[in-house]
Every structure is written in C-alpha cells, then in structure tokens.
Design goal:
Chain lengths: ~210, ~500
C-alpha cells in the first residue's frame, strides 16, 4: 500500500508538468502571435517541459506532496506588441491564453476519452482512467486558480488591463499584499470548512460525467 | 530547443505515467470490503489465502475473488484460519519502500539546497574560488607545433634551452649524473626577438605540458588572489610533471620589492614572495622547469634571480644578418617566393626584429596578392619588389587615401598653381596603369588629367611603382619628377 503513495504522487506530477508546460507555452505563443518575441528569444516558445521548470514550483513542492505547482513565468514585453494591438489588450490576451489553454486541454481530453469510450470501448484500458481524471481535474483547477485576480496570477493581469486608470493606485497598493492575500485565500476558507478548490474539482467531475465516463 | 527533444521528453513522461498507472492498477486490490465481510467469509469457510502486511489484509476467497480490508488478525481469528487450513502469509515487505518514502523528501530538499547554493554563488560575481585558480593556458604535447626549427637565429639561446629539452626528455640521465638543472631560466632581450617563441618551442620539442601565463595575469582586484594563483599554477604544474611553466613579462610580477611609489606595493610583493617560495619548493625530481621572459631584466628583484631560483639567464639578442636570413627563410616557407634573395633582404633589414620580419613577409605576400588580383592570369608570385615595397615605412598603415584625405588634397590642388606640364605613364603598386598630363605636383601627390573622358585622378607618391615621362622630357618639371624620386626604378633593376 505504501508504494502507492509514491505512485500516486508521480501520477499526479507528470500531468502537472505537462499541463504547466502547455500553459506557459500558450503565454509565449500568444505573445508571439501578437508580435512580442521576448519569450521566443529566451527559448520559452517551446513545449519542452525542461524550458519551463521552476525548481520549487514544479519539482520540489509537487513531489513533496503539495497538490499544486507552478512553472517559471513567461516574460511578456508589451512594448513589442504589434502596432495594431493595444498594449493592455495584448496583455489581457496573453494573460488569458494560459488558463484558456488549460481549459481547452481539459475539454479536449474529456472529449477524446468520451469519444473513444463510445466509439471504441476498450481502447483505453481502465488503468488510464485515474490518469485522465487527474489530468482533467488538474487542468480545470489550474485554469480556475490562475484566473484568481491576485497579483502573481494570470487573473490579476487580466484585471490590471481592464481596470480604469482611476483605480490603478489603489490596485497597486493592494498588490503589495498579494502574497498574503494568496495564502489567505488558499487557507482561510479551508479553516472555516469551505474548500475553494472543491468547486473546480466538482466542475471537472461533472465534465467527466457529461462525457460519459 | 530542438523539436525532437521536446517530443522525446513528452514521450518519456507519457510512457512513464502510463506505466505508473498500470502499476497502480495491478497493485491495488480491486475490491475493498469491510472487515466484517472478511469475518463472515472466515465463518463461512470461504477463505483460500490471506496476505497480511501490518493492518492491511488481502484476502483471496475460494471463488478466486481478491479483496483488501483493514483490520487485526487476532489469535482467535488466526486459530480459525489455521483450523480451516488457510494459507496465511505475513509480508515483511515495505522496508525498501519505507526507506524510499523517507529518503525521497530528504533528497529533494538536499537538491533544493544545492540548487540555491549554486545560484547564490553564481550571483556573487565570478565566484571567489574560481578567482583563486590560475588563469594559465595549457598546451599539451600535441598542440604546440612550434619547434626549434621554427625559431630563426638565437643559436646560443637554443643551445642553452637544449639542456632543458634534454632534461625533460631523459630526466634519468640527469639524475644519474647528479646534475641539477637550473630551476628557472630567464629569457631576456629586446621586444620581438622570439622569447615567447623560444619558450613555445621548448614545449614543442618535448612532450612536457606547457603552462603559458603572463605576469600581469596574477594581478586582480582582490588582495591575495595573485599569490593564490601562483600556488595554484605550481601545484598544477607539479601534478602534471614533466612540465614547463612559462611566465611571460616577468617584470610585471618580479619587480624589485620596495620600489613602489609611495608605500610599498603590498599585493604585488605578496605575489612575488609566493613565487619565490614556489620556486624553492620543487623537489629535485620534480620535473618542472620555469621559463620566464622579460625585456626589463634590470628591474627584477634580486631574490628572484639568485642561484637556485631563476638563475640562468639566456640572452635573446637582436638578430644579426645571418639570423635575419634564417628567420626570413622560415617565414617564407610555404610562400610562393620567386627569385628573392633572402640574404639581400636580410642585409636590407638591419635592425628588424623577428616580429617585424614576420610582418614584412606577410606584407609582401599581401602586396603580391593584390597585384595578382589586378592583373588576371598572373600566377601568384612574391617577388623581390614586393618585399621592397613592404619595407617602405608608412606603407603598412594604409595604402589608400581615405575620403577626408582626398578632400584635403583636392582643395590643395584647386588652390595650387600649375607647376608645369608633363605627360606621364604611371604603374601603381596594385599594377593598375595611369596615363595623362600632370597638372599639379607637390612633395607627396600628383594630380593627373586623363584623356578620354576619364576624371582627374590624384595619385600618392607611395602608390607609385613606376613612373615614366612620355612627353616633356628634359623640361625642368620632368627633371624635378626624376630628382624627386617619383619615378622609381622598375622591378628589373
């Protein structure tokens, strides 16, 4: 039984690494599409996980059993966007690309698995199911988490590009407490018995059910 | 990052996760039953075998169904099972996995720690430890292809260094004779006479490792680094013996102590002291020879050149005529020279040092190359003429005008009175011909009006290889051209 602990950890970790890779790649690719090649020149426009690994967020914490992770952020230089793309629009699009890619991955993989279950039952062995569900839940979770409007996360960039200048100073003042806010958001609801992340998990489960698995 | 690498990483990860999933599935009992189910199975005598691992019990019943449950096998239960003849296995397994479980986070944390130590080291400037390492270049046996054959002249020096070569090649003979080779040899002489080349040749002649370092390389921003580098250099050289340490520009390091401006120059003296200690430090059978080169032997510290340290001085003198001819011969090896009397060139190049002769040969080759480029079908030959032109002072810097010069010359010629007329035919150094009337000449330039719709051209004296006066011979102006040495004797003379 004990070995399962390690097994489960890696069954969680590998989909995590792949999802994070796609996430960061999506940032880089969208920036490239909008004319900013900063990420590309840094070698980040790549689906190779090795390019995106953050030693703590991708290796140590997830492997130590924290059911979560992050990768090296992809740098975006809004000054290099094409002339026809506004800087804040560009930032919004590149920031949204990451979570969007995760949602897409979740939808795609459920769709594919659902299709294969209907059209060719038995094609996917039962053993694949835990991996697939881990993958889907993880991606929905990543998308949800990254859309939280707290500064290091993608959601904050989206908010930043949307709020009027008038609120800018207030936002910046709040941003300095962002780390605290993030920790609080993760742990406080849990302390009063609400698991914030059970929602996206629930959505993912519903998605999986919809696909008929 | 290569596409194939990306694909490979993905494949590995996907295969790994598939394998893990399969592992997990095959390991896990499909069914989990409450403990009471197990008890009732025991009561019904349906149990075939039981595997126990701590509180985890895996049961196989007689219908072949496997399920897991959690509970205690107490004595009564065990008694019942043995009565029924059920196989009970206790699994001791899990010690390995327990170890892995224990070690896994530890290894991760250690890796994390190492990563951060590395990172902080990298950020703290070029790390301090690396700075203490010597900055020498190492040439191993195969690399330095220079031998004594490539060194022209300096026969005396070669002979003296022959001892070193012999010592490094057959140390046993020297040991048998009880002879001690001088630790250090100082090559002294004016710049450009082949001191460095000689040292390289020593390495080329023997199979010894060659440590090439310049005296100034021991100087660094931080105090103590110089001494540390000296130690490091000597340690490495001793480890890789037989070896030759060559310290170029020794005077940067070995200047007489206490001669600094103001208070003494502590850091340099530390470095020098370390060098002195290291020179003393060899054992007799350490096959390490220190060669040093300087063109300021007079400023060296007397402790550095005392017997037992760098005590043999070899003078690398300026080249005499025979030596110059030798150098020229070596330098023109492999160059297509044609009818060049190297002894004559050697006679003409009194006072040239080796470096200058080398550049002379190179320059001659360049001139020949340019010449042959302008005259098609001409085989590339380096002639005596090319050498003579290469020797002309000032030529090496730049053979052509730049734009600014041209402008200045133009304005000067505009203001100048015509000096006289003469029709001349000129062959330039690059072999292109110019023909026309001289409309103006001063000490350095001619302005020539060419016929046939071509623009006026300004020609520098330095460009001219041959000038022939076609019309107006005998006029004062033409004579002036002759006297002023515009018309150079042609190549055949």
């Amino acid at each position: 039984m004990q070995d399962d602990w390690l097994l489960e950890r890696f069954i969680f970790w590998i989909p995590l690494v792949l999802s994070l890779t796609v996430h960061e790649w999506a940032h880089a690719a969208s920036a490239k599409a909008l004319g900013d090649d900063t990420a590309e020149r840094l070698g980040r426009l790549s689906l190779n996980p090795l390019q995106h690994i953050d030693p703590i967020g991708t290796l140590i914490l997830p492997l130590l059993g924290v059911p979560f992770g992050w990768a090296k952020p992809v740098p975006i230089n809004p000054l290099r966007f094409r002339a026809d793309v506004g800087m804040s629009t560009g930032l919004l699009l590149t920031a949204a690309a990451g979570p969007a890619s995760n949602l897409l991955l979740a939808l795609l993989s459920t769709g594919l698995v659902g299709l294969s279950a209907r059209l060719a039952p038995g094609l996917l062995p039962d053993a694949a199911m835990p991996v697939v569900s881990t993958f889907v839940v993880l991606n929905v979770l990543l998308a949800f988490f990254n859309l939280l409007p707290i500064p290091p996360l993608d959601g904050s960039r989206i908010v930043e590009s949307l709020i009027p200048d008038y609120f800018r100073p207030a936002w910046d003042a709040l941003a300095s407490y962002s780390t605290l806010a993030l920790v609080a958001l993760i742990f406080l609801p849990r302390m009063i018995g609400i698991d914030l992340f059970s929602w996206p998990q629930g959505w993912a489960m519903r998605l999986l059910h919809l696909s008929g698995i | 990052m290569k596409k194939s690498k990306t694909v490979a990483v993905w494949l590995v990860l996907v295969v790994a996760v598939a394998f893990l999933a399969w592992q997990q599935q095959s390991r896990e009992p499909r069914l989990r039953m409450p403990f009471t189910q197990f008890l009732s199975d025991v009561a019904d005598q349906k149990v075939a075998s039981v595997d126990v691992n701590g509180n985890e019990i895996t049961v196989m019943n007689q219908e072949g169904l496997r399920y897991g449950t959690r509970g205690m096998l107490d004595v009564a239960l065990l008694g019942k099972l043995s009565e029924q003849g059920v196989q009970v296995r206790y699994e001791t397994g899990g010690t390995l996995t327990a170890w892995i479980m224990f070690l896994f986070p530890v290894v991760l944390l250690l890796g994390f720690l190492v990563y951060f130590v590395r990172k902080s080291k990298g950020s703290a400037g070029n790390n301090i430890l690396a700075m203490r390492r010597s900055t020498h270049r190492e040439l191993s046996a195969g690399e330095s292809r220079v031998t004594f054959r490539d060194v022209g002249g300096c026969e005396e020096a070669k002979e003296s260094l022959g001892d070193v070569v012999d010592f490094l090649k057959t140390p046993q003979r020297w040991l048998n004779a009880g002879a001690r080779l001088p630790r250090g040899i100082l090559l002294e002489g004016p710049p450009g006479c082949g001191k460095t080349l000689l040292a390289r040749a020593v390495a080329g002649e023997t199979n010894a490792k060659f440590f090439l370092v310049a005296g100034s390389e021991f100087v660094e921003m931080f105090v103590g680094v110089g001494a540390a580098r000296v130690r490091d250099l000597f340690e490495k050289a001793i480890k890789k013996a037989p070896s030759v340490i060559f310290i170029d520009e020794l005077d940067a390091l070995g200047r007489r102590r206490g001669s600094g401006i103001g208070s003494s120059h502590d850091e340099r003296e530390q470095t020098l002291n370390q060098l002195l200690v290291c020179l003393d430090g060899f054992k007799p059978n350490d096959q390490v020879v220190v060669l040093a080169a300087t063109n300021r032997p007079d400023v060296l510290d007397s402790a550095l050149v005392r017997p037992g340290r760098i005590d043999r001085r070899i003078r690398v003198p300026e080249l005499d005529e025979a030596a110059r001819a030798e150098v020229l011969r070596i330098q023109t090896r492999g160059k297509p020279i044609d009818g060049v009397d190297l002894h004559e060139i050697a006679r003409m190049t009194a006072g040239f040092n080796g470096a200058r002769l080398e550049s002379l040969c190179n320059e001659a080759a360049l001139i020949a190359l340019r010449r042959s480029r302008h005259v098609s079908g001409n085989p590339l030959r380096i002639t005596r003429d090319d050498f003579v032109h290469a020797m002309r002072p000032g030529l090496n810097e730049d053979q052509r005008f730049n734009k600014l010069d041209l402008l200045m010359i133009e304005s000067a010629t505009q203001l100048a009175e015509p000096t006289g007329t003469a029709r001349v035919q000129i062959r330039l150094l690059d072999a292109s011909p110019v023909e026309g009337d001289v409309i103006w000449a001063n000490g350095a330039f001619l302005k020539i009006r060419r016929g046939g719709g071509e623009s006026d051209i300004i020609v520098a004296k330095q460009q001219i290889q041959q000038l022939e006066v076609l019309e107006g011979t005998g006029s004062a102006f033409a004579d002036e051209l002759q006297i002023d040495n515009w018309a150079r004797p042609s190549a055949t003379v």
